[in-house]
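Predict structure. Chain length: 102.
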Amino acid sequence: MKATSMSVADTISWYCAIVLLGLILLASVRENSSEDVQPVRGSQLFDRPCDEIYVVGEGETLHTISDKCDDPFIVERNPHIQDPDDVFPGLVIKITPSKSRN
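Prediction complete.
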């Protein structure tokens, strides 16, 4: 009797795990499909909006990002930047514009 109840419990836990995994995958697919993702090419890189969380792109420097986003205090607000000259594509920084942008 004890072996049968353990077998039933194991089966139920596997079904629950599979259902949970399916729900997670379904939510992930829905979330990704709702976004209108378009690749950034050429000069579009410098036309990107300045979101609060900004990912440095190819050819960008802290100076160009500061000018574009109107945030002269990028280094001060991002303590993980040890060397302002060592900025690379993919680096995530926080942007806080000093005035509202149109």
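Summary: The longest strand covers residues 53-55.
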